[in-house]
Structures are given as structure tokens and as C-alpha cells.
Design brief:
mainly beta, Jelly Rolls, 6% helix, globular
Amino acid sequence: MSKARQLAQRTNQAGRKNLIINGAMQVAQRGTSETGVTSSAYRACDRFKPTITNAGTWTISQSSDAPDGFATSLKFDCTTADTSLGGSDRFRLDYYIEGQDVQHLQKGSASAKSLTVSFYVKTNKTGTYVCELNDADNTRAYSQTYTVDSANTWEKKTIVFSGDTSGVLDNDNNSSLQIHWWIASGTDFTSGTTPTGWEARTNANRAAGLNVNIADSTSNDWQLTGVQLEVGSVATEFEHRSYGEELALCQRYYYMAANGTSDTSEAGLGFSYAHSDAEYRSAIDLPVEMRAIPSLDSPTVTNGYRFVSGATSSATTQVVNSITVAYPAWNTKRKFLISSGTGQPDQNAGGKSGYFQVYQSTSAYVAFDAEL
């Protein structure tokens, strides 16, 4: 074993080394598969956000196909091809890190730390791809290429990024350091030259060297797992964490409180009370402190939600199609107040207590979003 690797292992044994949450793609709170995807949003595996602009149609899923030592991966299957990308078209996978979590990198100082990104990738399409580090606070970036040598084979890739002595990262809860995996891009991002180090971000250089278009055939797919970002210039063994620990870390950014797809037909969510004869409210305790005061993520579903108040023998029930934010000023990073909406039929229920449910619908859910 080299001295550099021995030093890296001793350093990393002192504490948590992987800056990536859910790098083994274990947690998928939003669901394990989504079809017909053509736009940018968090989907399937938590913390990893596909950015898609006019680059085909996709099924995005948490797959059980994974390399030895892993159980799951994030998979993209092309279902409608785009063989001619426009200049600004793109498909990349993004990961965002809070500024307060990367202060130890000493970016912007003479002591700036090198970083190593390692991951497992599998695709039917061999060729040259691009992995980019992006400093969102100072508009700086560093892109490097990697090559997929064998089709339909899990390959481990390791990329070392030197420290950046320019641009201090903000010490806050906003997105500061980002990783981008470019897998399809128009000429706006490929027409320049591959950087040899950190530079002022130039769009033409960001995906320079990318020579594949993963969107050009419905036979194409691309998978990722085992993502690790660590301090130093040596890739060490992947840091596995328990599912429970990864879930709690993910819930800082997104919390699926009740989901009619995976829970029972009447998934209880919390105690409720009749705020008036025309409105029902329920206070939700969030399991961890979220990154910021979250927004409510809950679709409109016919008869998807139910508020019940009063004793069993004389219960008052109100089934509604949607829920709303009851009182925004009351909400915090740990508690949230939802409402049935005002103007409900007069149930003579004012003051009664009870409970709230996602009710007999596989499409209804209640979630809280504080994503970067």
C-alpha cells in the first residue's frame, strides 16, 4: 500500500469522510420509478437531481442492478430519443452541497484542499463523459473527462480535483459546492476546451470533451452508484452508512410524511382539530430539522385526504381533494401546520380534536420540501 493511501486511510478513520448523502442510492422517498420525464426535478433516489433541457424522454428509477458491495443504483432509460441536440440542450445529473458543510475544504485560501470524486458507472454507450465541480458562490468551475471503456459493465471511476485558492465558499445553508455529471449536451457547453484547473466558469468549457449523446437512442441507459467525495488526492473504500442514517440525512431536504402508494389505504399523519365549523387543521412534527422552512408538496387528488374530529360515536368527517398551508408564520424547520382549506361545509365541528389521513388513494401524498 502506498504511503499516500495509508495517510488517507488514517485521516479518514478519524471521522466521516464522504461528503455525499445517499451515495449508494438506498433512499428513494419520492418513489422508485417515474416515467415520461422530460424536465428537471428531483426524482427517484434522494439528493440527486437530473437537469434535463430538450434532451429526450426518460424513465428514471432506483434499480436493483448494482456492482458488488451495493444493492441499488440510479438508472436513466431513454424512451424517446433526441438525435440532434440544440446548442443549449443538455442532460446532466446534479448534486448540491451546503456551504456550511464544506468550510473545512479551505477553498479560497493558500491551504485549499484537493478533492477526490469516485463512483461506479454503467452504460451501454462507451465514450468520453464529463464530471464537473461547480462553485456556485463565486461562479468558478473545474471539469474533467472520464472514459467508459466497456458497454454494460460496472466500472469504477476516480477523478482528483486540485484545491482552489480563489473563491471562499459562503458559510450558510445554501448550495455552494456542486457536482455535475454531463451525459448529453449541445454545443453551448462543449465547444470550448477542457479546463486544466479551477477557472472562472465558462459555459463552452463545462462539458468540453464530451463525445456521447446518451439521448440519441431508445436503447441507451446510464446508471450511477457508490458516489463518494472526500478530501485528498486518493480514493479510499466507499463509506457505507445504514439505511436509517441515510434516510435521516435525506429528510433534512425532503420528508415524505405519508404516501398512499406505500402506506395503508388510510395512512394516519397526525392529530387534527376543527379550527372552525368550516376548516380543519393538523400540526405535523418533522422528524429532523430541515435545511430551511419547507414548502408543502401534496397533489390535488379527488377525495384524497380526510380530517376526522370528535369521538368515535359522534365523529365529524371531512374528505377533501387537497390540503393547504394553514398559517405560514407558524411553520418552522421542525413543525408545519396544514389545513383542509376554508369554506368547508358546516359540520358543527368547531373545537373538536381528531386526526388527519391520506385517505384511500394511491396518488395522494403529503411531503415537505427544503431541497437545495
